[in-house]
Amino acid sequence: MSGSADESRPDVDALRAAADTMRAVRERCVWSQRITHRDLVPYLIEESHEVIDAVESGTRDDLREELGDLLWQVLFHAAIAAQDPDDPFDIDDVAATLTEKMVRRHPHVFGDEVATTPEEVLIHWNAAKAAEKRTRRSVLDGVPRGMPALALAQKLVGRAAGAGVTVSQSPVAATPASEAELGDALLALVATARAEGWDAERALRERLRLLEDEVRGAEAG
Q: Which SUPFAM superfamilies does the UniProt entry name for this protein (predicted)?
């Protein structure tokens, strides 16, 4: 039984070989054949966090391996999508869409715009992104609700500011002078929640729902 493209050959593209390997697995592995996009979500979350661990505390070998595992998830989703009877697309379509987007968002690299500072780059990026998302009616549109509550909170606070809604800092939140001290303060709040029998994750998510209501109210105006 033949496998994927021979990665030992110098003339074989490594990414293409990986895609071919995934396609073979999807077609021949009885476990992989029954997996859906939804089934893969827990693995995607786990692999993403393993990449984060490798970045923050792993070795270069760890990072290379974990990035490969995350890439496998992308290839797996693309292989599943390629078999969709109604709207199929494959990894080449994914790559083409990504390339088109990155070219649009970097007019200072691929066009005539000029950006000499990171701030100017961000202006071009945001302008291109806004043009792509003309159908969005709220600054909250496009924020993935599956994010962990703390990451979601940071994202929503930034989006809320764009709608003119500010979230006041409590004295506790204003005290930390570094990320390390902020970590201490957050950990202390979680310890308080545990002592009181509260669910810190749920408490933050419920407060975020109120923030979203404030933002949509401000937008409606």
A: all-alpha NTP pyrophosphatases
